[in-house]
Amino acid sequence: MSQKVIIPTPLRKFTSGQETVEVNADTIADVFTQLESQYPGIKARLCETTGELRRFINVYVDGEDIRFLNQLATGVGPNAEVSIVPAIAGG
Predict the structure, then answer these.
(1) Domain presence at residue 91
(2) What is d(CA 71, CA 24) in angstroms, rounded to the nearest whole number?
(3) Taking the CB of residue 82, how many other CB atoms lie within 10 A of it?
(4) pLDDT (0 to 100) of residue 12
(5) pLDDT tens digits for 43-63?
(6) Residue 90: pLDDT band by 50, 70, 90 thresholds?
(7) Are 17 and 9 in contact (CB under 8 A)?
(8) Is 60 inside a domain boundary?
(9) How many domains, in total, are found in the chain?
(10) What's the pLDDT score for residue 88?
(11) What pLDDT sits at residue 42?
(12) Rounded to whole angstroms, how far apart are CA atoms 89 and 6?
């Protein structure tokens, strides 16, 4: 089964404007690998060179923040919805 990934507006330049894309993955790390395979350059906007999630990128699996789960090792089940949300700073 595939998972739906919701792409935020700033990253849609990598997906030719698509708001959502489909992947087949077992973990968030797999989701990012598949995104990079289909849309080269997108992973660099999501992860540091060390492979860790960038500080100002939030990722949710079915509404649950992966930072409070298993980070990039968080599992994604069949038909899961993965949301990528850039943090917004302001004051």
Answers:
(1) no
(2) 18
(3) 24
(4) 97
(5) 999 999 999 999 999 999 999
(6) low
(7) no
(8) yes
(9) 1
(10) 77
(11) 97
(12) 21
17, exposed or middle or buried, with CB in 10 Å at 0-12, 13-18, 19+?
A: exposed
pLDDT at 91 over 80: no
DSSP 3-state percent helix, strand, coil across the chain (nearest 5): 25, 25, 45
Q: Which ranges of 1-91 would DSSP assign to H, the alpha helix?
A: 28-38, 42-46
* Half-sphere CA count of 9, side-chain side, radius 13 A: 2
CB atoms within 10 A of CB 86: 15
Helix (H) or strand (E) holding 25: none
CATH code where residue 31 lies: 3.10.20.30
Q: What angle do CA 91, 61, 28 make, to 5 degrees?
A: 100
User: What six digits make up the tokens of 17?
Assistant: 């404007």
Q: Assess if residue 62 is contained within a domain.
A: yes
Q: Examine residue 23 and state whether it is found in any structural domain, yes or no.
A: yes
Model pTM score: 0.92
Residue numbers of the domain that contains 46: 3-86
